[in-house]
Amino acid sequence: MPEPITVTDESAIQLGEEVQGTFSAPELSIVMPVYNEERALPGVLDEAIASLATVPYRLEILLVDDASTDRSLEILQDYERRHPGVVRIIRHEMNRGIMGAFETLYNSARGRYVFMNASDGQWKTAECLRFLDLRDRYDIIVGRRRAKNYTLWRKVVSGSFNLLPRVLFGVRTHDAGSIKLFRQDVLRIPLISRSPFREAERIIRANRRGYRIGAIEVEHHDRHGGRATGARWPLVVMSISDLVRCWWQIVILRRP
Question: Global pTM?
Fold first, then answer.
């Protein structure tokens, strides 16, 4: 069984550069962060592999285990062993949180296009095929949820952070916390946010650089495992702070 790549805080960014310099690029990278998702992972990975079994181009399914304390890593290793060259695992020695996990994934993805998904079953990987059909028209495609399976509080938080960028920046981020397909170079845009607002900032800055942004409706399912953390007060406060900092830098100071 291949050993998962282990990433320390110091080596995460360099890892992406090494990987991209070593391997030829597939057309698509499916990326998913994993933290204590042993209940959801088998179903999520089975659906992903089955959905992509007949695509006519090379792809990879890249997962980062963010120092899980359950059987998540063991399950990931089993899928990597059974699907060599398709499933690839990176492991954090210490938990870095959702934004740290995505930073590692984005820097390590080899594909010309990168599809961001969750590992808890909220979205089907099959949705990426619809996104890819639009890749000649858009550089970023956002999955706009038809209905959000959220508590009232999470709906308020999510709705507010989708509305405020349109008011403050004049940019529709659509549904920034949902699944997305990026052209690889979009992920190289420098960002200042360190909270979940980072995904909205990426869309805002891409829009100002002339990248084409589109959205399509997707189904949002109940999570199969883990627990929601995106609307916790500390993250909400951090996101508000990042939103204000971005607004000050982009709109008021007009920095590039």
Answer: 0.85
